[in-house]
Amino acid sequence: MADPNMGNEYSTEGDPNEEVPKDPLSITEEDKKNAEELKEEANLLFKNESYSKAIEKYSAAIRLNPFVAAYHGNRSFAYLRTECFGYALSDASKALSLDKNYLKAYYRRASANMALGKFKLALKDFEAVTKVRPSDKDAKMKFDECNKICKRIAFEKAIATDDGKCLSDTIDIESLVIEPNYDGPHLQDGKVTKDFVENLMEAFKEQKKLPKKYVCQILIQAKKLFSEQDSLVYIDVPGKSKFTICGDIHGQYYDLLNIFQMNGNPSEENPYLFNGDFVDRGSFSVECIMTLLSYKLLYPKHFFMARGNHESLTMNQMYGFEGEVKSKYSTQLCELFTEVFNWLPLAHCINKKILVMHGGLFSSDEVTLNDIASTHRNKQPPESGIMCELLWSDPQPQAGRAPSKRGVGVQFGPDITKKFLERNNLDYVVRSHEVKNEGYEVMHDGKCITVFSAPNYCDTMGNKGAYINITGDNLTPKFTTYSAVPHPNVKPMAYANPFFGLF
């Protein structure tokens, strides 16, 4: 959970475990000079938000001279920008092992730990800086902000009740009123209709707001609908019927509208699956999630939604969705959204041949579809296990498994994919979770496909978005790519935790 999750940055270039010289005496003056030049090139790329290329240059510098703390510290910062939190932690720790007084490395490591929700570990690093520099106002501010988060979490745990009641069970819908001057769409007898959704999309396009009463009604109905499904949902696509799979949307509402304009609005004849990460980063996340949930209620057997790693409390607190909901509605509604997110299915299986999940495969070869279906999901994602890996894992080009570059989940190679498919009698897997320059990527001999549907991610990446079409009698994926469309002048991360502005 760090700043912009970027492009094809998830290459193996710059793996902290890479081979580098072991003896400082083996480094020539020419090596040192070339490494410095590479670092300067990398710094310029970073400044221009070309984080993937910056990582490559920092890595090249490290291969020439791995004994300079700043090289590891700078690459750690670039990894933070690309959500490779595991690599960021490793680089920051390496920098500190080379120079325990390199204070930026404490910040980098603290940032990575915060991104992973490990606020107490982050607080220790901020505390270390304040001890070295007790008069440093910037260090004190970071420590205080992190300390506030730790205290808030402790307070929320202390006041949490165990009476089994959810907010959705206690909200008095009838007490919520629609303002007399509201001129947007209305639910019919409390239900979503086709006219409602189409008018809602137009109202959102004009930056109008849906009344809190309607938001609550839709959320409560959606929670009930999702809670009646297994963690693995089976989808049957008959004959020549078209079916569309979309990846991350990340609050880019106007690009979501563009998908519908290109591919047609959802309907019983035009079914969709949206594969997680509907919210965060983009600043129109409320509009995205309410549109998608409305379609789910309208076409419950022809519109599908999977949980992504950003449909979680910590991510929403850090990356903007919680701030957006509080700004547009209330703190209470944040809790209601969390209840809905907790019930989102973890994966979908199309025609018993295609498994679709947000993240990827597992740390064990023994996982079956039945294991996924029986996974308990009404909770925040754990740090390990089937649920965690479905939301967080990534493919890698080399065989075998490796620790996750993100610090959560696992990286899996083509042999792992092959074994899983054979064990479960599947043709291929589709996942999302990573920005790709063309909006999609085919790996593992065509057996592992990534689709990402948020073009020009965070208004900086310049990547295309994509969606996949298949038909029931031909499960071969057809890719459609597209560029970003204009949106109102609200920057991505506008509602993100202000802590991000401190780095």
Automatic annotation (TrEMBL):
This is protein-serine/threonine phosphatase. It is an enzyme of class 3 (hydrolase). GO terms for molecular function: metal ion binding; protein serine/threonine phosphatase activity. It comes from the Eukaryota. Residues 1-34 are annotated as: Disordered. Residues 210-486 form the Serine/threonine specific protein phosphatases domain. Keywords: Hydrolase, Manganese, Metal-binding, Repeat, TPR repeat. It comes from Lymnaea stagnalis. TPR repeats lie at residues 35-68, 103-136. Belongs to the PPP phosphatase family. PP-5 (PP-T) subfamily. The active site is at H310 (proton donor/acceptor). Its cofactor is Mn(2+). Its EC number is 3.1.3.16. InterPro entries: Calcineurin-like_PHP, Metallo-depent_PP-like, PP5_C, PPP_dom, PPP_phosphatase, Ser/Thr-sp_prot-phosphatase, TPR-like_helical_dom_sf, TPR_rpt.
